[in-house]
Amino acid sequence: MPFRPDHIVHFPTLAGIRPPRVTRVIAWLIAIGIGAVAAILFFVPWVQTSPGAGQVAALDPQDRVQAVTALVPGRVERWYVQDGDRVRRGDPIARIVDNDPNLLARLAAERAQVVAEIAAAEQAMAVAQIDVGRSAQLLAEGLAARRDYEASQIKVADHRAKLAEARAKLTRVDVTLNRQSVQTVRAPRDGRIQSINAAAGATLVAAGDILAMIAPETPVRIVELMVDGRDIAVIRPGRPVRLAFEGWPAIQFSGWPSVAQGMFDGRVRSIDPSAQATGLFRVLVEPMPGKPAWPDADFVRLGGKVRGWIQMETVSVGYELWRQLNDFPLEFRRPADDAKGPAPDPVVKVKK
């Protein structure tokens, strides 16, 4: 007679060792969970990424924060701008006066004196040249000695040297006068005054001292990411990058970029050939063509912090976990090499 479930009441020992329903449900859940985890590990794709932190920078050196320096030594007499003011190229920033208020007048008087010396030297040299011609004629007629003719030539050379010295002195005076006359410091480019060295207004300044800092308002921005040296060997220009800017809300899943929110796209522009003092390598990231533009410069300013993930190869979740646990480098595949196939054995030429 076949065994039916209601017959188990006649076997109390068998009924006692039968597992409860809750235990069977938990066992089924564990088995299904193990199968699901195994399927995820082997079949779900994962995008490997190389993370890095950095900041927003300007690509053009002229778009970076610049120091406006004093052109001549002296004292700041007047400021034309304040912190935060917008300036155009050539707008005055500060006026510097020399410690000696009569310096320009004395330089002008010195220049007039040098000009008079040049005129006198030119006239004297012209007369000396006439004497040379007269002495040459008298020497040809036998009415003058050769010594007199040579003495007149020496006088011409002497006056020529004095004229050259006077002209060089005039050049030096003009250079000094021009430098002292350019006492108004002007903005080298369009931008905004970031800070002013207020101490310069009460103390003496030398040529080259910083008076103010000017920052451009519409720079061409890039991102500087600092990447670990273990990953830098497999990173190449053109690799896509996902960026999260400071102050901009974002949710990032590095392995599944399609579900990330608030992220922006970029691509690797260049990689520094040598490491920084911290041992990290600087990677420059530019905007990705054809993708949404980065936030406006009013929201993402120069110097703002950025988190970035350089996207590499696509592998399975299980392989990525195994790589992370063993601290292995990123997977690297070169499509060009794969298309070419294995490289042929090198041919060794033997010299006869």
Q: What's the gyration radius in Å?
A: 42 Å
CATH class of the largest domain: Mainly Beta
The number of distinct β-strands equals 14
Strand order of the largest sheet: 1-10-13-12-11-14
Q: Pairing-aware structural class of the strands and helices?
A: alpha+beta
- Strand and helix order: HHEEEEEHHEEEEEHEEEEHH
Number of domains: 4
Organism: Sphingomonas spermidinifaciens
InterPro entries: BSH_CusB, MFP
Region (Disordered): 333-352
Pfam families: BSH_CusB
Structure description:
The chain is an alpha+beta fold and 352 residues long. The protein folds into four domains: 35 residues; 137 residues, Beta Barrel (Elongation Factor Tu (Ef-tu), domain 3); 64 residues, OB fold (Dihydrolipoamide Acetyltransferase, E2P), CATH 2.40.50; 79 residues, Orthogonal Bundle (Helix Hairpins), CATH 1.10.287. 35% of the residues lie in helices and 25% in strands. It contains seven helices and 14 strands. The strands form three sheets. The protein has a six-stranded antiparallel barrel. A four-stranded antiparallel beta sheet has the order 2-9-7-4, with no helix packed on it. Strands 6-5-3-8 form a four-stranded antiparallel beta sheet, with no helix packed on it. It starts with 11 loop residues before the first helix and ends in a 12-residue tail after the last helix. The C terminus is likely disordered. Keywords: Membrane, Transmembrane, Transmembrane helix. This is RND transporter.
